[in-house]
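Worked Example 4.2. Read the sequence first, then its structure tokens.
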Amino acid sequence: MKLSYLLGAIAAGFLCMSLVGMQALVALFSSIPLAKRRHRENPAFDLRRAYRRILLVTVLAAVLTVLAAILVAVLLPLPAVAGYLLGMILGFVCSLRRLSPNNERNQRIFARFYEDCLTEESDIDDTRIS
């Protein structure tokens, strides 16, 4: 097997983990604590809706990552599969800081992606007696 196939498999594994696999991990390890924090700060935040969306993102990203790994394992020879797995590990290690809920980028993305989970409180009456 040529070295270019191995390097290509490493690059493909790195990209797969960086673009898809890390989304599942970020949803689990960052979005759940951010959702709990947002709900504690603002009880009008719909925690169940946020959890459903986190579960959806996690499942879809995990399924895509596993399907890509299965395709690589079936279609490529063993050294290329090992390179792909090495690339996935490198992608994970390079993106390890993204798993923190205190990461500013995660907080901005969470605020934008989950802003519709903030429901208005219906028991507040805006009419004022003058």
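Now turn to a second chain, presented in exactly the same format:
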Amino acid sequence: MKTPAKHEFIPAIISGGSGTRLWPVSRQSFPKQFAEIFGDGLGNSLFARAAARVMPLGTPWTITVEDLRTLTEKALIVEGLTRAQALRNTLYEPRGRNTAPAIAFLCRALEMHGDKDAVVGVFPADQLIEDEEKFRTTVLSAVEIAARGEIVTLGITPTFPATGYGYIETTGLFDSSLSKTAMKATRFCEKPNESKAREFISSGGYFWNAGMFVFKLSKMIELLREHAPKVWMPFEDLKSDYSNIEDIYNRVESISIDYAVMEKLSSHVTMPCDFTWNDVGSWDAIADIKQGKHSVLASSALAQGSSASEATAAIQISSENNFVFPTDQKTYAFVDVDDLVVVDTQDATLIVKRGRSEKVKDVVDRLKSFPPMAAKRATQHAFEIRPWGKFEVLKDTPDFKSKVISVDPGAQISYQSHEKRAEHWTIIKGRGEVILNDETIPVGPGSHVFIPVKAKHRIRNTGAEPLTFVEVQLGTYFGEDDIIRYEDSYGRR
């Protein structure tokens, strides 16, 4: 049942960033909001949880980058949106330019849709929020205040002297006739050192800036036009089909909404939040969240969608306070070592001292300078999510490449050919049909199909379960760009 609101309200999810602080699980091709950190697969990712959290308030809009199109659409459909709704309500930036251009893009698109009088809420996709009813109650209170022309931020009550968050300074209640909790905010404070953070907490009246904003659309447009013309003015030229968005992003200033607008306001309103919140910004934070008092092993495993099984184990001998985020079916043993976080994926393993995981970004930066085969692990996983399903690379050598490929029920890959490789397909599970040079070949478990170089081919799943097969490529080049597409259900070229 949809939560009632007195004013038209449009929730929006802002989904960007590369999540480098959570490498190797979070990478540019599969950032933390989609990774399996707190659940299994896209349907239980942080992004999916964010969508489900705001859907009772209204059909959400999403602002993300083009590179995350497939992940975004699939996650929204899993959460109950139709593909048409996902397409209509999702805005794709050509590349990330910080939060002010993302919000300006959203505002201009909603204005063009005739929603100028609506109240909009912007919520990051990569935060963990418990007590979702309390979240929605807080948002609805913020909506009533924002409808009067105020910019409202959701402020998190500090629980420790954090140096990784910005703070909001408040000076008493905003208007007791409107809200018993809303505070008058006077200043945004940069991320402080520990001494200053302790001072903020001891003095009271300070809240963490969680990047959640509620505002009347027309008011935010007014403020962007006044305080951030280098952000807003390019969007005045936006075409209704967004076909010139690349040109817009070539001209727009890259800046956060905090710098562009919020810090220039003489005052605004902060709504204190009475729910559990975590920005899941480091492996230290994840270890604290997931680890029970005596637990070593995380309860979930890799981002691909597998989970830790009974074959996964962790042992400590003369060791304590260690934590493992595992791959499946492995044993981890700690001997005479303390305070370690181990994060294991198929192609990379991170070992970091607890309390030092902010340095993981340095690992990613350094890895990018390595030879290409190693450098790509900074940004790419051994698996990829595609509109039709997913694949995982098993082996990539100069002589051959092998994959496990899974096609979703009712889905099919593009009708394609390759100039530099042949392929052998062996079906493991499911039922389907292969189209090879316009001939239809039914396939099931044990079937083998040879795809010669330059042969036109596709496979479709005709069953009710995923169609899984092993692909072995032989040839002179195995890059994903060696594809000529003749027809594609998803509009790819």
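Notes for the reader: The CA atoms of residues 70 and 387 lie 6 Å apart. The domain at 9-278 is CATH 3.90.550.10 (Spore Coat Polysaccharide Biosynthesis Protein SpsA; Chain A).
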